[in-house]
């Protein structure tokens, strides 16, 4: 009797499109659950990444404290005002101008071919362990992505995000430090979590961010 009732309930659940979508999205034809592993840029093992919590929401995992990683100070002859962020896309470096003669430098990841851009923006918001909302066009290219992923160690935005104006672009951390120095993003600029935490302490809302394709070699000397 009990088994018959249970079978009837499960049949009703699976027969309902709405419930099937909410309860069992990974059983839908064509739906692929991403393959996850513990972060490679951390000494902490947070275990396997979580599966989607329904089709729309995914957990980003824990939010540990991240210690700032101090950048290198280099010679940087320029007319940029102190406090300006200058991003060299070709060189894959971010500079925080200290004076007319020097700057702090951070290695970064930049947009892949077809996703690079140049221009000037201002930081409009700074967030710790930000949630990620993949744009609709990105979810069309990668159907396994959730509508929202909460902030955490498995979130691709990392420990901090600095939003650039009203655009979709950000300077942010990463859940995979192996991408630093490469052209892999959709136009954002990735840093290690230690470096982005350090940078976020040194700048604020309103900071000017200048993105150029290439800096003259005379400006940044090592």
What this model shows, in words?
This protein has 222 residues and is of the alpha/beta class. The chain folds into two domains: 2-56, no CATH class; 72-221, L,D-transpeptidase catalytic domain-like (Beta Barrel), CATH 2.40.440. It is built from four helices and 14 strands. The strands form three sheets. The protein has a ten-stranded mixed β-sheet, with helices on one face. A hairpin with a 4-residue loop joins β3 (85-88) and β4. The longest helix is centred in the first third of the chain and has 14 residues, at 2-15. It is globular and about 50 Å long. The N and C termini lie far apart (79 Å). Residues 1-44 have low confidence and may be disordered.
């Amino acid at each position: 009797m009990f088994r018959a009732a249970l079978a009837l309930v499960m049949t009703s659940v699976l027969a309902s499109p709405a419930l099937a979508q909410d309860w069992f999205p990974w059983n839908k034809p064509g739906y692929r659950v991403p393959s996850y592993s513990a972060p490679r840029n951390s000494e902490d093992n947070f275990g396997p990444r979580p599966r989607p919590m329904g089709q729309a929401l995914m957990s980003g995992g824990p939010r540990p404290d991240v210690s700032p990683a101090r950048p290198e100070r280099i010679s940087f002859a320029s007319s940029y005002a102190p406090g300006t962020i200058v991003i060299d896309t070709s060189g894959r470096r971010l500079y925080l101008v200290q004076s007319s003669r020097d700057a702090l430098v951070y290695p970064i990841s930049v947009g892949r071919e077809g996703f690079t851009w140049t221009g000037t923006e201002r930081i409009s918001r700074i967030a710790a362990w930000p949630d990620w909302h993949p744009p609709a066009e990105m979810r069309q290219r990668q159907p396994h992505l959730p509508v929202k992923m909460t902030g955490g160690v498995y979130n691709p935005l990392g420990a901090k995000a600095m939003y650039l104006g009203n655009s979709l672009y950000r300077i942010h951390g990463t859940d995979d430090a192996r991408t630093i120095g490469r052209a892999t993003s959709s136009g954002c600029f990735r840093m290690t979590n230690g470096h982005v935490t350090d940078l976020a302490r040194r700048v604020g809302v309103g900071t000017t961010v200048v993105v150029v394709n290439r800096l003259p070699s005379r400006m940044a000397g090592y």
